[in-house]
Amino acid sequence: MTATDRLIASLDRRWLAWALLAWLATAIWFLFDRWNAIYWFALSDTDDNMRMMQVRALLDGQGWYDLRNYRLNPPGGFDIHWSRIVDLPIAGLILLFEPFMSTPWAERWAAAIAPLLPLGVTMAALAASVRRLVAPHAWTLALVFLLGAGAAMVMFRPLRIDHHGWQLAALAVTVAGLANPRRVRGGLMVGGASAFSLAIGLELLPYAAMAGAIVALRWVWDRGDARRLAAYALSLGGGTAIGYVVFASEANRVARCDALTPVWLSVMVLAGALAFVISQVRAENRLVRLGLAGAVGAVVVLFFVIAWPQCLGRPEQVSPELARMWLNNVREAKPIFEHPFRMAFPIAVLPLIGLIGAFVATWRARGTPLFAAWAPVALFGLFACLMMLWQVRAGGAAQLLGVPGAVAIAWLLLRWCLARGNFVLLAAGAIVAFLGISGVFAGLAIQYLPIDRPTPYQQTVNRAGNRCPFLPNLQALNRFPAQTVFTHSDLGPRLIVTTHHKAISGPYHRNGGAILDVHHAFDGSAEQFHAIARRHGATLLVICPNMAETTVYRARAPDGFYAQLERGQAPDWLEPVELPKKSPLKAWRIR
User: Fold this and answer.
1) Distance between CA atoms of 395 and 402, rounded to whole angstroms?
2) Which UniProt keywords apply (predicted)?
């Protein structure tokens, strides 16, 4: 046996070890590539900063079920709709590192390493799926394509400590469960992963519902899948109940619609119980099974409508004013077709090619056992593509679900090139397969094309958004005694992470009253701002000129208080305070 043959055999036999080795190499590269951001503790997203504050509160002794943040909207604070699940690995890593380094550096290393953990789960799950769906050695291509999935991979890079990476890992496990020929194990994987994701947050609730529908359809198609359906039902209902008992905060013990509360607990337990009941029915006719599955769906929907009518609208349950002034303007919540082509195209390429590949593979697998595995993956991919037409934030999940189909096409292309016995053709086919199908080519090429390039104005806004949250610029505010700072909602979470101050609001719907106060204060007159600031006990005003949020104030209220500040028209009760010369921030003491 040649060395090549031994390597190929090892890639098949020890695939999991090789996949973990690939993960380790990727993690090392990520840490190297992001070192500058790690050094400056550049938690760039507001959710990452809030996650760090939640972890700090836990380590400082705040109650397990108390997720109220007391440094936003003081003195009472506000309850966030998250859970403690994602806090655990971050907190554990901080405690692990603290005996060997200072707490700030322990936080840096924890925030750098924690997002890489769900990446390992994702890589292993995708490798397992593609081994079963395409070929024993094709899993290597799956990892390559995953690394080219920019919208998905950004959720796993160092410092991205919010919950999205873990939810994508749960989604990858769901795909592995759908593709698993072992019915009980596959059902447990899908139900358990769905329950885990729901206990973290509701962002992937539609995917969990779709996964359940696919499991039910497999049972409708094949009576032998009753064991898969039963395992799924028990793990979904039981796992959701465990997640609620262990992780639901005190604020989530009431009938809210935006998290795992009694609302979704009751829905999932009922759905699991009814699905288990019909799995035990010996119905040999497909139409009978379809009727039973439809009846379960109808009962669950009817229960939801009757028991929780307040949740038929937006799960955030925000006021029309807050939706109009803030939530409807959140960019990631807009459909992909409302975004510039320069951003939308690289996101959509991989999911669309993956969808084509999945349907081609499903067609080729008809009449074989693989059809029952490929059909669910194709349906899941179609659903993910449609989700992007609702919100662009679905792009990461869509790219992840597009990987198996993209690998299927690439594998067909490589086999065709191999059959021709031409090394040059094989090399060219490999390059085309990687660049064209992974989406890397689309993301790279569009940077050099004169399509939707940022205007000078957009570049100014982007520059302000990068400079103002920069650690030294905000830490300069620590020269002032700890106090409540009135600043933009998008800057609030970063401010409380990097300084000893408190802030009024962050961009979270349960903080809606404070968000509206900030908007009203900056949109209205100087007197109105003064009254709102005094009501919140704010004694320091900090703004970031040209930050994205401020452009909304300028456009909406050209003569409002914020627009006056930018023009240098500060009232006499604002006393300018000195900041470092090159600071992009401006600050005043509120007298």
Assistant:
1) 10
2) Membrane, Transmembrane, Transmembrane helix
Closest CA to 149 of 291, 67, 26: 26
Q: Cα–Cα–Cα angle for 157, 83, 497, nearest 5°?
A: 60
Residue numbers of the domain that contains 135:
116-445
pLDDT band at 429 (very low <50, low <70, confident <90, very high): low
CA angle 410, 411, 413 (to 5 degrees): 65
Confidence check: pLDDT of 284 > 70: yes
- Residue 317 binned pLDDT confidence (cut-offs 50, 70, 90): confident
Please list, in sequence order, all residues whose beta carbon lies within 8 angstroms of the beta carbon of residue 208, skipping any fewer than 6 positions away. Answer: 174, 194, 197, 198
> What residue type is 517 in one-letter code?
D
CA 463/CA 145 separation, integer angstroms: 31
Both 441 and 516 in one domain: the answer is no
Q: Using alpha carbons, select from 162, 199, 28, 130 the residue that is nearest to residue 404.
A: 130
Please indicate, yes or no, whether residues 161 and 265 belong to a single structural domain of this protein.
Answer: yes
Residue 469 has pLDDT above 80, yes or no: yes
Q: Which of 125, 149, 115 is nearest to 30 (CA)?
A: 115
CB 353 within 8 A of CB 406: yes
Same domain, 468 and 340: no
Burial of 336 (0-12, 13-18, 19+ CB in 10 A): buried
Mean pLDDT of 364-380: 92
Q: Could you write out the DSSP letters of every residue in 85-141?
A: TTHHHHHHHHHHHGGGS-HHHHHHHHHHHTTHHHHHHHHHHHHHHHHHHT-TTTHHH
pLDDT for res 422: 60
In angstroms, the CA 386 to CA 276 distance is: 29
Q: Where are the beta strands (DSSP E) in 167-266?
A: none
For residue 36, with 0-12 CB atoms within 10 Å meaning exposed, 13-18 middle and 19 or more buried, which class applies?
Answer: exposed
For a pLDDT cut of 90, what percent of the chain falls above it? 75
401 and 476 co-located in one domain = no
Say how far apart CA 347 and CA 549 lie, in whole Å.
24
The two tokens of residue 157 are: 């890079």
**465-468, Cβ contacts within 8 angstroms, sequence gap of 24 or more:** 465/547, 465/548, 467/584, 468/544, 468/547, 468/584, 468/585
